Amino acid sequence: MEQHHDDDRSEALAHFPHLDRRGNARMVDVTGKTPSERRALARGRVVMNPATARRVAAGDLPSGDVLAAARTAGMFAAKQTYDLLPLCHPLLLGAITVDFSIGASWVEVTAGIEALDRTGVEMEALTACSIAALTIYTACKSLDRTMAVEGVTVWEKSGGRSGSWVLDADGTVHHNPSPQTPERR
Question: pTM of the predicted model, to two decimals?
Fold first, then answer.
């Protein structure tokens, strides 16, 4: 019975490339992979009181231009992802964008990453989005104790063996299995 359990575990672990056969964390070997164009887009929101959102939009905060600070922090964080997350590879990022949309009671952060490399850039996009959102949070926390960072998610991914996909607002994933050069936006 124990042997059967071990076989099931090994089979389950085979689906997680960051784990070895014993379940220990390991860095995936990408040495033999050919570099290809990679792109990822992540989004998240900082939900806040309407008065706080108005002040962010007007640039009327004690800490100054919070969106400029958040954009810079997000770009810096993307470049440091491999230092923050031990199973990530250091990548040479070709482009980093961090943009914002402001609603009545939220600021949406969108982070885009592009690279020509041997592994994906999803973690870099998520890191940029998260740190930009946290920068907004820290700049506004003295005014609004009700804020929350929500929904940080990869919305688009292209390049690599798994191809391209887009996540719709309703949660539906649309796959494009043939890797192709991502369009620049």
Answer: 0.84
